[in-house]
Automatic annotation (TrEMBL):
GO terms for molecular function: kinase activity. It comes from the Eukaryota. Signal peptide: none annotated. PANTHER family: AMINOGLYCOSIDE PHOSPHOTRANSFERASE DOMAIN-CONTAINING PROTEIN, AMINOGLYCOSIDE PHOSPHOTRANSFERASE-RELATED-RELATED. This is Protein kinase-like (PK-like). Gene3D superfamilies: 3.90.1200.10. The keyword Protease does not apply. InterPro entries: AGP_Transferase, Aminoglycoside_PTrfase, Kinase-like_dom_sf. The lineage of its organism: Eukaryota, Fungi, Dikarya, Ascomycota, Pezizomycotina. Residues 160-179 are annotated as: Disordered. Keywords: Kinase, Transferase. Residues 64-274 form the Aminoglycoside phosphotransferase domain.
Length: 311
């Protein structure tokens, strides 16, 4: 990837119209997501969506620029027009393309099987392309930076020496969020996170004994990291002919929310996506198996750990 210097601004001839000012962004009345000063997503005009806030990570925009550099039509992310931080208030801004269409979540229940098949076939090609991207070295984000998944998150205000982490059979030499050279280091970091969240020490000892036998031999592959239907947009619902076949050649699938993307163990995409099935009230779990290779046994393990951490 060609390195991105932040602040980043697209060239004037790449813009559909002038970028919105900070004042225009904050005064937008079209609000898609609102977590106060931490994170907000708003629309501006017909061309822009802006994600901004104190907790917004600009690496999300860098990930989308990375995807754009692939110039591979099988993978589509919103175009990025600007990435910057205001030094006065430390608010960070990602100004991106406004995608025309609807989320897959909003229309899923109305789709027929051939339509789902057409959409998921496109998603399969997208995932296959992403998973072939070579790692810059181990398990990491672009630029061989730390991983952004919340599994590896700790408070920025906490000093690791003061955090409630006890060693389990020896110290962990790498930072909790990497980058990691080996899958063993990834496993150790997850156990450390388990203890950081004040989970039972006895269960952590069990995980330390069990995970090396279960979570092993999974190379780093590029992972979107949050493959839920709310993060998949389609430009239109595919047309079906009288025979029940999809005949729509203009269907476009766009992936949004690239905040946690990076090179994770090969099972990670499937395990995280399966968590988006919630209570398994529909057939999304089946179609995930058409989009991704399934790691069902490993999902059972990781799901148990995730639920214990955040339930």
């Amino acid at each position: 990837m060609t390195s991105v210097m932040v602040p980043y601004y697209a060239q004037p001839d790449e813009l559909p119209c002038p970028l919105p000012t900070k004042q225009q962004i904050h005064s937008s009345e079209e609000i898609f997501l609102d977590y106060g000063e931490g994170r907000k997503v708003v629309g501006f005009g017909h061309n822009f969506v802006v994600k901004y806030g104190l907790n917004v990570e600009l690496i999300e925009g860098e990930n989308m620029l990375f995807i754009a550099q692939l110039k591979d039509t099988s993978v589509r992310a919103p175009k990025v027009y600007a990435l910057y931080e205001d030094p006065k208030d430390e608010m960070r801004y990602i100004v991106m393309e406004r995608i025309t269409g609807v989320t897959l979540l909003s229309v899923w229940s109305s789709l027929e099987a051939p339509q789902k098949e057409a959409i998921c076939a496109k998603l399969r090609r997208s995932m296959d392309t992403l998973r072939k991207l070579p790692s810059p070295g181990g398990y990491c984000s672009i630029g061989r930076r730390p991983l952004e998944d919340c599994m590896f998150w700790t408070s920025k205000d906490s000093d690791e020496t003061e955090s409630p982490v006890e060693q389990v059979n020896g110290p962990i030499d790498t930072p909790l969020n990497g980058p990691f050279d080996t899958e063993e280091e990834v496993n150790s970091a997850m156990i450390k996170k388990y203890l950081y969240n004040n989970a039972p020490r006895g269960k952590a000892v069990f995980y330390e004994r069990a995970l090396p036998k279960v979570l092993c031999n999974h190379p780093p592959v590029f992972t979107h990291g949050d493959l839920q239907r709310k993060n998949i947009m389609i430009n239109r619902i595919p047309d079906i002919d009288k025979a029940g076949n999809v005949v729509d050649e203009e269907l476009e699938v766009v992936l949004i929310d690239w905040e946690v993307s990076g090179w994770y163990p090969s099972y990670w995409e499937h395990s995280r996506a399966m968590q988006g099935c919630g209570r398994f009230e529909d057939d999304w779990h089946y179609w995930l198996g058409q989009i991704l290779d399934e790691y069902l046994t490993i999902w059972a393990w990781t799901n148990m750990m995730f639920l214990e951490l955040w339930s």
